[in-house]
Write the structure tokens for this entry.
Amino acid sequence: MTQRSGLALAVLALAAERPMHPYRMQQLIRERGKDQVINVGQRSQLYKTIDRLVRDGLLVERATEREQARPERTVYAATEAGVRTAVEWTVEMLAAPRRDFPEFTAALAYLPLITPEVALEALESRLAGRRAELEQVRSDLAGAGHLPRLVLIEGEYAVALLETDVRWITALVDDLRSGALTWDREELLELAEKFET
């Protein structure tokens, strides 16, 4: 069975909408703003995903198109099994998502590798980026206010996550600035040795 992923779900959903070629799928994901939640940056990954979906009987080649001087493009359609799978994946992703292992959380787990000063600088940089991203998503949502809420719902969720992230990182930065959170690597290494024996 094909491994579930956001990109595979997007491909199946688009191919269930109407048969289309991979380039058009990539365009629509971007045009609809879904590239904020679906990674379509590398076309090779899109083609690998399509190959897996075809192999597993969830997509079929419907036709081949050629526009003037452009190369041939294969048009894909979702099979009945593909539509059922897309529905099942959507329900599963909503009800019981897989556990993510974000890099940021991993970096927090190993914060003692760096000094509090370096951590503060890195976190201030992250905070500025997250604030800018939050304002951009808010602006995008405001500009798309004429669209039904249903097609913007992932943007609402992104705002909620970003707001939480900004609040939490702000508090962490404040603790580092005030000295409420600090550490000494040598002391931590000594402490770790004590617990190992």
In short: Helices lie at 6-17, 22-31, 43-55, 80-95, 103-109, 116-143, 153-178, 185-196.
